[in-house]
Design brief:
It is found in: Cell membrane. This protein has helices spanning 18-46, 48-52, 58-90, 92-110, 116-119, 122-152, 158-184, 188-191, 198-201, 203-214, 221-228, 236-243, 245-254, 259-276, 280-308, 310-334, 337-356, 359-364, 372-388, 390-398, 405-425; strands at 448-449, 452-453. With 459 residues, it is mainly alpha-helical. The radius of gyration is 21 Å and the shape is globular. The two termini are 35 Å apart.
């Protein structure tokens, strides 16, 4: 990666070497954080129905288990409002520490929970509580890491550097899936007693490694500039909704794109294993392969967006994923492993990455530094909250037998075309200097910055 622009760029952000350090810290931190978050999704699809809802029939148990997965997304909007406020008031670095600790502790405790057979309804109640804490943590993670990398990056490479936040998220999914591969192969007796707990206990290591990486990060030069000028907003949310309400709505709609990973990674896994009768480990390997390809594809798509703009790349990724989701669910219904792998890698590894890796830059560039973290967090987490329940909605649409994949494919297509509409209405910001992004007035009045005056933008 290149630490400095080839020519001086206004708003390039960061001392020499800091963009690289911020990208690495965001990558590693996001990978570790989302390892914790995604092992829950895998366990919800394969295990929790039998451990925490054994009194229900298999279809209902799966539906209830996936609902607890969705609860984590429901908690995200609340976490976004709280952590977004403090992130724009206190800085990006402090929120990144807080989210790491909260995620690590709550995930470890999931692995310590008693089962339904041991304590009855208290077991799923505790499970939901810890899932809520996971959701609160995840609410601030991507927005904080995305803001950190975007504000450190050279202006002409914001897409590339900030994409490492989402690249780390993909790595976390790989780590989570790999952790479950040997667990899923265990006999049921061992799997349902102690085996499923091991990936959750590993979060202790996750938290320690994440702390070591993130304690070396510097606060972003953009936030420090705003703080030095005395322009940190006392009430970032009031400023956000006064001047950026339309951008928040756009990000919310665009964030429905997350339904592709929820349906493909959670509902489709349950559909393949429980309805079609495919091997659990084989489907987990599809996710691993797709995410490995995504590790390469995401920075390449992001770098392309630095050249040609955010909108065309994002629109291609979202619309292409809508088409491929239909093909992927059809492939699973055929039971053909080769076809499943081919379509799954194309969807999860290549096309999905076109939109996925752009999120920090595309969303973050809609807002000024003074409200960037709260704007990204609130917009994405409301969208993710809706998308998080797409697996539950898919299970309901699939019916008692869980075999109506055509209906689920239709749901996926609708949820993935909404982000296309949102992107079409957005401004193109790829070549806007960092200091000029999302200009809004400061409390003291108009502020001249690099020859430009802050003015209220249209919503």
């Amino acid at each position: 990666m290149t630490d400095t622009p080839r020519t001086p760029v206004p708003g390039a952000g960061g001392a020499q070497g800091q963009p690289r350090k911020a990208a690495i810290a965001a990558w590693v931190g996001s990978a570790l954080e989302y390892y914790d978050f995604f092992i829950y999704g895998t366990a919800a699809a394969l295990i929790f129905g039998r451990v925490f809802f054994p009194e229900s029939d298999p279809a209902s148990a799966t539906l209830l288990s996936l609902a607890t997965f969705g609860v984590g997304y429901a908690a995200r909007p609340l976490g976004a409002f709280v952590l977004g406020h403090f992130g724009d008031r206190l800085g990006r670095k402090k929120i990144l520490f807080f989210t790491l600790v909260l995620m690590g502790v709550s995930t470890f405790l999931v692995g310590c929970l008693p089962t339904y057979d041991q304590v009855g309804v208290l077991a799923p109640a505790l499970l939901v509580t810890l899932r809520l804490l996971q959701g609160l943590s995840a609410a601030g993670e991507q927005a904080s890491a995305g803001s950190m990398t975007l504000e450190h990056a050279p202006a002409h490479l914001r897409g590339y550097y900030s994409s490492f936040t989402l690249n780390g998220t993909q790595a976390g999914q790989i780590l989570a899936t790999v952790a479950f591969l040997p667990i899923a192969a265990l006999p049921d007796e061992q799997l349902l007693t102690w085996g499923w707990r091991i990936p959750f206990w590993f979060s202790v290591v996750v938290a320690v490694v994440g702390y070591i990486i993130r304690r070396r990060m510097a606060e972003t030069p953009e936030f420090e500039r705003v703080a030095a000028e005395g322009k940190v907003a006392r009430m970032p949310l009031a400023l956000l909704f006064r001047h950026h309400w339309a951008d928040v709505l756009r990000v919310t709609a665009a964030a429905l794109y997350a339904s592709v990973s929820t349906i493909a990674g959670v509902w489709a896994l349950a559909f393949a294993a429980d309805t079609v009768g495919l091997d659990r480990s084989a489907l987990l390997w599809v996710a691993v392969a797709g995410n490995c390809v995504a590790l390469i594809a995401i920075p390449l798509w992001a770098r392309l967006s630095d050249r040609i703009g955010r909108k065309p790349v994002f629109i291609f990724g979202s619309s292409g994923s809508a088409v491929l989701m239909v093909a992927y669910l059809w492939a699973i219904s055929t039971g053909n492993y080769a076809l499943i792998f081919a379509v799954g890698i194309l969807l999860l590894g290549v096309v999905c990455s076109a939109a996925n890796g752009l999120q920090p830059a595309f969303y973050g560039e809609m807002f000024s530094t003074r409200v960037r973290l709260s704007g990204m967090a609130i917009g994405t987490q409301i969208g993710y909250g809706i998308a998080g329940f797409s697996a539950t909605l898919a299970a309901w649409i699939a019916g008692p037998e869980g075999d109506n994949w055509v209906g689920v494919a239709g749901l996926s297509a609708v949820l993935l075309l909404i982000p296309v509409v949102a992107a079409l209405t957005a401004r193109e910001t790829a070549h806007t200097p960092t200091a000029d992004l999302g200009r809004i007035p400061a409390p003291e009045g108009p502020v001249t910055n690099g020859g430009l005056t802050d003015t209220v933008r249209p919503g």
